[in-house]
Amino acid sequence: MSDFQLTYSTMFAPPRALHERFDAALARVRQRLGQAHGLFIDGAFVARAAALDKHNPARQSERLGRFAQASVDDVELAVAAARRALPAWRRTPWRERVALLRRAARLVDERLYEMAAIVSLEVGKTRMEALGEVAEVSAFFDIYARQMEENDGYDHALPDDPLPHMKSRNRSVMKPYGVWAVVAPFNFPFALAGGPTAAALVTGNTVVLKGSVETPWSGLLLAQCLKDAGLPDGAFNCLVGDGATVGEALIQHDGIGGVTFTGSYEVGMRILRAQVNRRWPRPCIAEMGGKNAAIVTARANLDAAAQGIVRSAFGMSGQKCSALSRVYVDRSVADALIERLRAAVGAIAVGEPQLESSWTGPVATRAAQLRHADCRRQLDGGGARIVAAGPLPADADAGFYCAPLVAEAPLDHPLWRKEMFAPLVMLGRVDGAEQAMAEANASDFGLTAGFFGAEDEVAWFLDHIEAGVTYVNRPLGATTGAWPGYQPFGGWKGSGSTGKALASFHYLPQYMREQSQTRIEP
């Protein structure tokens, strides 16, 4: 397997050894389920009386562990620890910070299979989705380390002032903000904690991470990797707690210099406004929701379109902000596309996600299962109909399983505007590409978008679509599948606050502020 690099493009045909290693790691992890887990503050794992039992979303009878829950007092402790660690960490030469990130990346690689087994159990991801998420973290660490090197630590000499009798030297130096808060979501609890953490640390900030109460284990795995890589005590801290109390206390704390948030539009906008309204504005990188669309023209390859739609809409049971939610298909080929979708959706293997045979698993929470059921009820009447439905496993009642659904509905149906975050995709017939584009762009979101059409239609699509991540004629996923180093990932409009994408050329500088330095030499 030494020559096999796991990405979202290669994960569809992995070598046999990958499955064997995952199975062995899963067996080891299951032997130690049920343990108690603390918070990570000032370099140590600390127990708390308040704790929450976490169960496997595919098998609710399986208890994964008991996880400490943070309080507002713990926010104070974590921020204080990060502030104490900040002076030494920001003075650490950037090359040493880069070396530490690379050590952490190699530890992630070494622990890939066990950590992926944990992510699979915690989130309900299939083995391939879980392996992909963990591998993303080492990719983020490597990319941000390399970008620091390529930009010479973001320290650049500028032209001297043209003064005849003195030497006036000028520099542009990027410096960290201070303590950086990272608020991670439940659906990518390892990657979307690890990526922003890596960016903040390599640029000289210290970090306080708040993980989701739904998926509390992943942040602790990240903490262990960073600790073992030699990160100084206090430079990274991990809390798990309720967003309304612990999260609010963290993002409002006067000791925080900046925030990276991944989650809903409503919460992201509230955090963004709060940072602007501080005594002085703090930077806020808010990665928010999506209502992602794919356009299928009359000249599209319908087999590729059907494959891309199914992979994107139902991978991870639709619980990705990039998941396909809306399909606009030319009326002349709609029936033919529906026929292909019906066959493809019916063949989806829904089951216990740790099994090699399962292509998708349950949703992560009971709330998501109830939301899917509510959306299904909204499709009764009003011209809407289910045109394709996937199967459920025989033991579906044991976990939070939802049948994959394709629904055709009038274009004014309310579900065209609702971010469902569940395995349900809407399909609508349109009279040509222009109408499809107008409908695709008639959204507050602009995260990802897909297109299936003829080669001479591609430039038009890319010129007109309002989305930060675009895919053309991609059967691997109509709107999903970005991988660090290959596809930068960030949204427009209500999907992102900065217009800068994760793992892009423009991401790291957001974690620093520029200082112009002019000095007169003797």
From TrEMBL:
It catalyses: L-glutamate 5-semialdehyde + NAD(+) + H2O = L-glutamate + NADH + 2 H(+). PROSITE patterns: ALDEHYDE_DEHYDR_CYS, ALDEHYDE_DEHYDR_GLU. Residues 51-512 form the Aldehyde dehydrogenase domain. GO terms for cellular component: cytoplasmic side of plasma membrane. One of its GO terms (molecular function) is L-glutamate gamma-semialdehyde dehydrogenase activity. Pathway: Amino-acid degradation; L-proline degradation into L-glutamate; L-glutamate from L-proline: step 2/2. Keywords: NAD, Oxidoreductase. The active site is at residue 287. It is an enzyme of class 1 (oxidoreductase). GO terms for biological process: L-proline catabolic process to L-glutamate. It comes from the Bacteria. Its EC number is 1.2.1.88. Belongs to the aldehyde dehydrogenase family. This is L-glutamate gamma-semialdehyde dehydrogenase. It comes from Hydrogenophaga borbori.
